[in-house]
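Continuing the series of single-chain predictions for the mutant panel. This is the parent chain; the variants come on the following pages.
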Amino acid sequence: MNRRQVLRRIGVASIGMAMLKLHEALAAGRFGKGAGVVRVRGDVRINGRPAQVDQLIRTGDRIETGKASETVYVVGRDAFLQRESTQVSFPEGDGEFLIRTLRVVTGRILSVFDKGDKRLEIPHATIGIRGTGGYVWAEGGTTYFCLCYGVADIEPDLAPEQGVTIETQHHDSPFWITPGHPEGILRRAPVIDHSDAELTLLENLVGRWPPFYIGSGDGIIGGGY
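Parent structure:
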């Protein structure tokens, strides 16, 4: 099995499990019900301690998932699906529960953000966002970023002059961000490892619908490295 097939299989399995549990959360009445941890599967830690459902996440907190683990949580009016072997933190905010910055150290996370200026600090780049949905996969020397919808300013750390501003409606411009790559630090990428259904459910957790929603079926978005 090649790398593309492996990644696709991992993505499909992860999406399937996340979808089931998110549907359960919504069925239990979590639609738009405010902040806190919605889902814990496996080894999930907040500031080094085991996470609990309904636990609040505050500015300054660090969230880590182990192997075969994941978590879904809401911070203010933003919602996140954090996959296995991922470490993120929220170093800055406007108050205790209104985050301003998401820092992705390693791993995979799907995020939906309310209106207003926010910042993603990811390996190899800083991304300014305004009311968006986005997916980050940081692994090794390459980071993947898909702006699922909204507006983002992508500024590579080592080559800010190569920065771009993108606006998308529906996964229009995913990028690989790889310092030193012969084709440039920013390269166009396929859409991988996240789905419209996941975005819809995350938006539902904060009482919204994604802008692309038309009530049609939700399929897994495929692709690979």
